[in-house]
């Protein structure tokens, strides 16, 4: 009996080990099966490590942006357009890790846990992916942006659909340059629109303003004096680009007075500014579908009065990505509700059947009253920067930012939106080392705004 008991225990032990091993295998298979099937060694999809056969990608109007033909991967016919889409769509290599062709490789190849890539290998059937991007708008914005370095991104703040996403520098994914060395191509594989982390400069005053409006009851009756600079309680100096004299909070926003906002930041405090910033994705990373993006960074908890002041102006150690600053403006435009961005509208399987729901609910990040006040303040700032006619033509609301950096001229920022039910779009533009934000972003912004009004017409 003892021998039988020992054998039974051994059998049970083996059964437990086998069961655990089976669970471990199938868990790994469920998580990593797509990666295994889509390895560069899979000759149904890759040839010598280069992508050759997978599903097609089209824009919001059905224009083919990438497809496979006769074992070769080809991209949109227009050079400027396909270069501008390089970071979003990807190329034939595996270096653009955040691109659609990398992150959605399993979906494009029609992979399923049940059949693997059988439809591709047996019948040459693949999936199709429809993006929210407009190829025509990409071309217009890319041509306006020229040889600058930086990013442009725009989305529908009612639906979350990204309609334009440009990161520069870039290259032709169909004819990748052999040599990507040199200063021009520095950071070439980084999608600056999603993962570029920059000092936001005065565009961050939108967030500081939200914190002030929601925490300082008499903020609109407060008066400040700007003589081009001010001395903070810890003895440090805050400088301003102008001498604005006696000035109130709203006027301080429209003319972008640093003296006003350094003092406001100290009145509000670092923790309340941080709390507002984190509602928009600072100090965390975001996701749109399977594509990740950087939020931003804000932490002035241990800063003295001067550095806290600079943080309220978007300097000190503050960082933000263009997609985050786009969402900040989008929430102000949308009555305080933030819709998460998305770039993939629909995914069709090999039989042409949609396989994704792509539904997300907006979240309230600021009160309707605060967003209404910011709308008015951003209109005043837009009139100050672009003039009344441009504001009226495009229902423009915006905030510029000139972000000081260690080397070269400041980065030039613009974050804003169109206050229009027909054109509910928010955007962010950054020109690296562009100097004056008003001049560096103007032509790109006007091209973008005009293009946005022509969408879906």
Q: Could you name the CATH homologous superfamily of the domain at 194-344 and 360-453?
A: DD-peptidase/beta-lactamase superfamily
For the residues shown, what is the average pLDDT? Answer: 88
Percent of residues in beta strands: 15-25%
Task: Classify the fold: give the CATH topology of the domain at 194-344 and 360-453.
Answer: Beta-lactamase
CATH class of the domain at 194-344 and 360-453: Alpha Beta
Number of beta-strand segments = 22
Categorize the overall geometry.
Answer: globular
Question: Biggest β-sheet: count, sense, barrel?
Answer: 5 strands, mixed
End-to-end C-alpha gap: 85 Å
Per DSSP, the total helix count is 17
Helix content: 25-40%
- Helix- and strand-based class? alpha+beta
Low-confidence stretches: 33-51, 113-124
CATH architecture of the domain at 194-344 and 360-453: 3-Layer(aba) Sandwich
Taking strands numbered 1, 2, ... along the chain, how are they ordered across the largest sheet? 5-4-3-6-18
- Rg result: 26 Å
